[in-house]
UniProtKB/TrEMBL annotation:
Name of the protein in its database record: SAM-dependent methyltransferase
Xref: Pfam families: Methyltransf_25
GO terms under biological process: methylation
Domain of life where this protein originates: Bacteria
Length: 285
């Protein structure tokens, strides 16, 4: 694990948030499978022109997207997954060993990690780049690790208003949970990259070229049976609930689960993820 500049995020993802993601890995992998497929499609398109190379997955979490990319690209590509969360990296390594996938997983803060210079042909991220305390420095560090002409493809959330599913728990729990932190526009976190112009300028300021942000949508699902665990463990509400005694948690969790009712159909939770597809290119020779 490299020294992190993102101390608050390091504490979160090596603490309660990281544990919650590890425990809900299967649910989250299913939920975000359409996003992983999108990145696989971008990677396989590139592999038609660059049959072998090196790929970096930023904020790889428990490795679901990285392993899907490894399967799609085959042995001619070398893949590295990086994440600030030691618990999630441990799970990713275990998963890779189980399926004998030749993927390297490293515990690293991508803002400060000393990646090999001019190394990667492709850098991708599934919802993993919105958490830097200095995004320009982070993307400059990633650009330095990219070979001339290398591609960047990242998926980030658009606004909370465009992602009502993602704010159900907070909107429902706010009157019942004292001290629940409010969202700060542009701050590191889930919705840190909602402003299209701001993100474009950050990428350009960090040295990337041909920067585009394209609105994309993904139809996501997971089992209704997993909803209570998801609603009570993930995000700022999950962290706040963990501090309460079980008798105090239960009625709040009941209210949150009931609030998800409009998204539940035939034993599944279904919702639309509204994201930006962030694409850019490292300067050529």
């Amino acid at each position: 694990m490299t020294v992190s500049a993102n101390h608050d995020q390091a504490a979160l993802w090596n603490g309660g948030s990281g544990s919650a993601w590890v425990d809900n890995r299967a649910t989250l992998d299913r939920m975000f499978a359409p996003l992983a497929r999108f990145l696989v499609e971008r990677a396989t398109e590139m592999a038609q022109h660059v049959p072998s190379g090196r790929l970096l997955d930023v904020g790889c979490g428990t490795g679901g997207s990285t392993l899907a990319l490894a399967t799609a690209l085959g042995e001619r590509w070398q893949l590295t997954g990086a994440d600030i969360s030691a618990p999630m990296i441990a799970v990713a390594r275990s998963r890779a060993a189980h399926v004998q996938a030749p993927v390297e997983f490293i515990g690293a803060d991508a803002q400060t990690h000393d990646f090999p210079p001019a190394c990667f042909d492709l850098i991708v991220s599934r919802l993993g780049v919105m958490f830097f305390d200095d995004p320009v420095a982070a993307f400059a560090n990633l650009r330095a690790s990219a070979r001339p002409g290398a591609a960047l493809h990242a998926l980030v959330w658009r606004s909370p208003a465009e992602n009502p599913f993602m704010t159900v728990a907070e909107r429902t729990a706010a009157p019942m949970l004292a001290g629940l932190p409010s969202r700060v526009p542009g701050a590191p976190g889930q919705f840190g990259f909602t402003d299209r112009e701001r993100v474009t300028q950050m990428l350009k300021a960090s040295g990337w070229e041909d920067v585009t942000l394209t609105a994309v949508h993904f139809e996501c699902t997971f089992a209704q049976a997993d909803l209570r665990e998801y609603a009570s463990r993930l995000g700022p509400v999950g962290l706040a609930l963990a501090r309460l005694a079980p008798p105090d948690r239960a009625p709040i969790i009941d209210a949150i689960v009931n609030a998800y009712a409009p998204f539940v159909h035939d034993g599944e939770v279904r919702f639309t993820s509204a994201c930006w597809h962030v694409a850019a290119r490292a300067p050529g020779v």
